Amino acid sequence: MSARTVRLLVIAMLALALPFAAACGGSEKKVTIGTKFDQPGLAVKKPDGTMAGFDVDVATYVAGQLGFKPDEIEWKEAPSGQRETLIQNGQVDYIVATYSITDARKQKVDFAGPYLITGQSLLVRADNTDITGAESLQNGKRLCSVSGSTPAQRIKDKYPGVQLQQYDTYSACIEALRNGAIDAVSTDEVILAGFAAQFPAAFKIIGKPFSTERYGIGLRKGDSELRQKINDALVKMQRDGDWKAAFDKNLGPAGITAPPPPPLDTGTSAGPAQGQQIWSKYSGQIFRAFWTTIQLTVFAAIGALILGTILAAMRLSPVPMLNWLGTAYVNVVRNTPLTLIILFCSFGLAQTLGITLADPKSPTSIADSNFRLAVLGLTVYTASFVCETIRSGVNTIPLGQAEAARSLGLTFGQNMRMVLLPQAFRAVIVPLGSVLIALTKNTTIASAIGVAEAALLMKEMIENTAALLAVGSIFAVGFLVLTLPLGLLFGWLGKRWAVAR
Ligand code: GLU
Questions:
Q1: Which of 48, 50, 83, 243 sits a CA distance of 20 to 30 A from 107?
Q2: For the stretch 239-275, what's the b/e string if a residue is b when 16 or more beta carbons lie within 10 angstroms of its beta carbon?
Q3: What topology does CATH give the domain 275-497?
Q4: Alpha-carbon distance 304 to 112, whole Å?
Q5: pLDDT tens digits, residue range 186-195?
Q6: Residue 462: pLDDT above 90?
Q7: Higher local confidence (pLDDT), 150 or 277
Q8: Has keyword Transport (predicted)?
């Protein structure tokens, strides 16, 4: 081979290999960081796709110390309620997102830092005069915060009289505050200041902060090597003055002066809470939540029994129009998921059409309205099953009886009331019991619109204690205590009242 051919071959091989090397290198070297996309001053995703804010600068500095250039960072939105899950599932390497270090969260993830200390505060419209602090919210004011955040939890624990609306993001709360749907927003002062600066003259922050929020960088539990590296990066950022520069640049315009950078935590993570601690802390709330479950079941059962009987009468009646309507109702409602029906009641009826089923001035209007809408949804859904159960009961009655009743001169209504329905009910007591048991369990869907029943409390307890098995078992037993006796009772009644033929 001549020297020229060898040279050509080497060039050709390099030309082939280079794109591969670049591709491999490129895909390997990436860090995924979770942050907020909608909190001005802290972390915002701008329309051109670039990121800005104090949290973004801290995250970028840390990434730099870990060996990643800014263009090797992939940003992932980390809403308050999803942060632990994002870390546990490995969807992010670490999270810098106004993320308070708490014992409950330390059971699921580890934290580096803290890198900033702030506190919970209140934001109201600039022309408001009657909200002076958290206490003053208790007389029927509507407050917005974010689900899965420490401020929302603190309001629920300390100020149970406040009507709390929870959304997934603070920008949704700010929008509701602007259009008057709620009266105040509560979260950390730095977050509120960022929003206040974005809409000057529209809002004001009320009073002094009433909690201590220590922002940490969340990472996978047990990864002490990464935690140490991030802590080293934070120390360097503070020592070199980059920390203060980032604070002044991002939060200075919002009128907050940089506090002294906090010392780092040395403590290690906590283990999950134990069954006994959980029970002593939550037993009162568990009974209250199951009481709501029982109330939902009883009201919806009464409604469904009435509506279901009317529907069954319609489907059995000789009037074709009623017959058709009954059949259409059953087929549409029975085949629609209950979650959709309940969400429709809340978003369709209440929010879009303004049918809230509660006095908007009442101090408990949000909770009352959600409860009644859930009863409505459960009634509408369960009625279709009740209707079909009763209809099958009517089919057990020999045809001759209805004919005999007609020939005696009874009208359709009299025939239904005096001959058919009494026997039909007695024939279907056991299957009606099954419908009632299904309804009891279906009430858990009401948690989707924020009704404080058993499933909602279960979610909150799992979030706060990280003891999935213990909490799950408590609620499973709770439902068994409700449903087992129902099954036994209906079985016994069914035997006792069976129609002897
Ligand atoms: N720092 C609080 C928390 O971590 C509130 C801010 C937020 O929701 O991101 O829950």
A1: 243
A2: eeeebeebbeebbeebebeeeebbebbeeebeebbee
A3: MetI-like fold (1.10.3720)
A4: 54
A5: 999 999 999 9
A6: no
A7: 150
A8: yes
Q: What was the pLDDT predicted at 368?
A: 87
Kindly state the tokens that stand for 33. 């960081």
Rounded to the nearest angstrom, the distance between the alpha carbon of 215 and the centre of ligand 1 is: 8
* Residue pointed to by tokens 């134990």: 274
Taking residues 214-229, report their average pLDDT.
94
| Beta-bridge mates of residue 213 | 118
Alpha carbon 255 to its chain centroid, in Å, reads: 33
Domain ranges of the chain: 31-117+214-254, 120-211, 275-497
- Name residues whose C-beta falls within 8 Å of residue 475's C-beta, 6 or more positions apart in sequence: 454, 455, 458
Residue nearest to atom 1 of ligand 1 (CA): 100
Are the C-beta atoms of residues 40 and 194 closer than 8 Å to each other? yes
pLDDT band at 83 (very low <50, low <70, confident <90, very high): very high
Give residues (CB < 6 A) around ligand 1: 80, 97-100, 146, 149-151, 187-188, 213
Cα–Cα distance, 48 to 27 (Å, whole number) = 23
Which two tokens mark 278? 């959980």
- Answer whether 120-211 and 275-497 agree in fold: no
CATH architecture of 120-211: 3-Layer(aba) Sandwich (3.40)
> DSSP string covering 428-464, please?
THHHHHHHHHHHHHHGGGGGGGT--SHHHHHHHHHHH
H-assigned helices in 159-206: 170-178, 189-198
Q: Atom 10 of ligand 1 has which residue's CA nearest to it?
A: 149
